[in-house]
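G.,

No rush on this.
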Amino acid sequence: MSSVPWHDRSAESRVRQIKYTKLWKLAASKAVKAKMRASSAKWRKSHKEVCNAASKAYYYAHRSEMLARAKAWVRDNPIGVAAQKERARARRYGLTVKKLREFLKRRCEICGAKTGGRWGGLYVDHCHKRDVARGVLCGNCNSGLGFFKDDLKLLRSAVRYMRRAA
């Protein structure tokens, strides 16, 4: 592969690409395809700058088409978009989608609410230092912990204040 877009390459280069594509289609065995994939990945890894430049050039040359295609996909696949968001949310906290769903079936770990108060859903509470899931909170409890910046000293101080003021 070259850093030059396919339509600006020499005829010889295009012929090589066509041959590779035909070889790929003809390669019946999984072993041959695996070998071709590995070879291609190795080349891309050793030529990152070239690949990145080619990708960037292609993107800028076809930006409007790519954005239109992406918008159309989002519009036409609401279930796919929801699944992507769910996978991204699970991955953010180091969970599987199944584990995330189990988490969200629980009640708020502080107040016991089944829903998230004025914001609706439940939230995955996580450690901001390690980005590890700790539990599930409703919107109010999640915001409360956020306002206290997950600082136990501040929370203890707030409890002392509430006891004195009661």
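When you get to it, here's the other one too:
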Amino acid sequence: MEKINGRLILIVDNVDEYSSIFEDFLSTCVERDRILMIITSRNKDILRDGGETTELEELSVEESREIFLQSPTFDQSPTNEETLNALCTEFDGFPLAIQQSISYIIQQRRVWSMDGAAYEIQDYLTEYRKTAPIARKLLDWHMGKLFNKYELTTYTTWIVSTQNIKEKEYGIHALALLDTLAYLNPDQIEFEFFKQVEIPLEHRTIENFDYSSQPLDQRKGEKIS
């Protein structure tokens, strides 16, 4: 929390459901007039008892392209600009999807360069378009056509990344760990914890994998910060 004019600024991020817990929390903070609260949400009706609201619009194609071009790994050649415009259009102006794709492209360029190859924006666009129907089908199965463009776009970029991890050596084990770590606080996770991880049922083909044989076991007492 930060302070402005003697008041505490409390930022509550990504509140998409109005629950009794959130209601109690909100009423407690409102009673303390020294707290200025900023709530981010994709749910326009999250503030039932009033409050000032500001609706943020999606980024334009031009604004999305600027985010890409801020990275030194992207150039503004005519071919890249046309492809980049197409990719930004696919993303519907959602910053999270843009940032995920940038990280993925940078990583792939590092990997491909080791073999003397070049990973281009067009390569990512091809992967994204190939993956989008898969993401749509999975969201449809989980949510029954109730998903929005944000969820579809972000989920597609996520699948592109995880599918790439899966194809690596020990990649399926990394995904199994990600499944478990998703339920934990990201700070101060002890390496000792990884030795006790049970592989989820969807990874049953590697359920007997011995984590103790991995380098993590050699780093007892260390923590991820």
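The chain has three domains: 1-56, 61-166, 183-224. Residues 183-224 form one domain.

Enjoy the weekend,
O.
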